[in-house]
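Troubleshooting entry. Yesterday's outputs looked truncated, so today I'm pasting the complete records for two proteins to confirm everything comes through intact. If either block looks cut off, that's the bug. Protein one:
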Amino acid sequence: MTNRNGMTDPTRQEQVFQKPRSVSETITIFLREAILSGRMKPDERINEKEISERLNVSRSPIREALRTLAKEELVTISPHKGAVVAGISATDLKDTYEVREMIELFAVDLIERRRVTDFEELRESLDFDTEELKQRDFDEYLNQVRRFHLALVKTAGNAKLCQLYETLHNSLLRYQRVGATVVGRLEHSVADHRSILDVLSQRNFKDAKKLLRKHFGTLTSELRHP
């Protein structure tokens, strides 16, 4: 806001209110990142006492954080074992990738139906030097590889579809991190993504869906038998 002289009055500027994080929210973020990054392994027992001492907090917000993570299916809580990092199973892998495939193939259908011609976000997701980024920052490299699929769904122009896809985020992240340990997997993924973008740009939607199915089939096979 400006005063009569046209100068900005610092006492009248609008401020964006940011609600401070509670202790439990902070712990939730800390544990979520530890699980998704692989620092906490599947089926690993979560020691409340150890976390309490490490973070210098009481156990009450830790338990609240664990309940939140249980709703996100990143943690399982039982009366006898307490809290444990959720395991990774062949059944969950199959279920997750079936839903992912359904969403992305439908996204291609929408792109065709809506006559989408702007694939800029997809191109931007592939605009990086594979070897240079992999050597410099592996996590960022993995993020870039994942960006392609989110960009594909966003390009379809359906907000609800994007929201549905986001519900798979945590599960996909865990499986993709496991898959990234397969030698050459990320490089193959990038090559697949470039091929998919090429045929989409040519409006060859039939081949785009065929390449996506092949891409997912390879991923699930390698995750089952790394």
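Protein two, checking that the full record survives here as well:
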Amino acid sequence: MLCFFLYLDLIDGTTSNGTPALLGFIGGRCASVWTSVTCEERRKGLLECLSRYFGGHNISTHLIEYAEKDWNLEPYSGGCPCHNATTGSMKDFVDGLRKPYKNIHFAGTETASQWMGYMDGAVDAGRRAASEVLVSLLDNDQLKDNEINQYTFESQSKLVFKKMNE
């Protein structure tokens, strides 16, 4: 059998309590090909490919569980686990997505400065928005523009609380 993927994004998905896991995505034309076969055929193909990746070891003897998700069947995802705009398409809009409107601050993976579409991006955007809220709670005279680091929540919150206690 042909190696399972020409395009495989494989991630260490080990949980915080140490439960081991591998997480992978099939994309592009390979996804079209592999969605036309059965779940068991995909599982078998994946195990054969992973066995090659890991030096010929029989990976199936170590498999605890196999689960898969076909994002094409999800009505609101557009066929993928996250949406990423094509190269250059956000250059005119991203500032508008991040810019607060009155007392409303926007956060979410789509507003991230890096790792858009992923959990890391959502955390980055949440920290940015939290920093914006902290700054908005201060009087304008208390914090100078050059003291604001809008992408680092930890340093921003320390600075804000220091200014508030002066």
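Both blocks look complete. Sanity check on protein two: Residues 94-164 form one domain.
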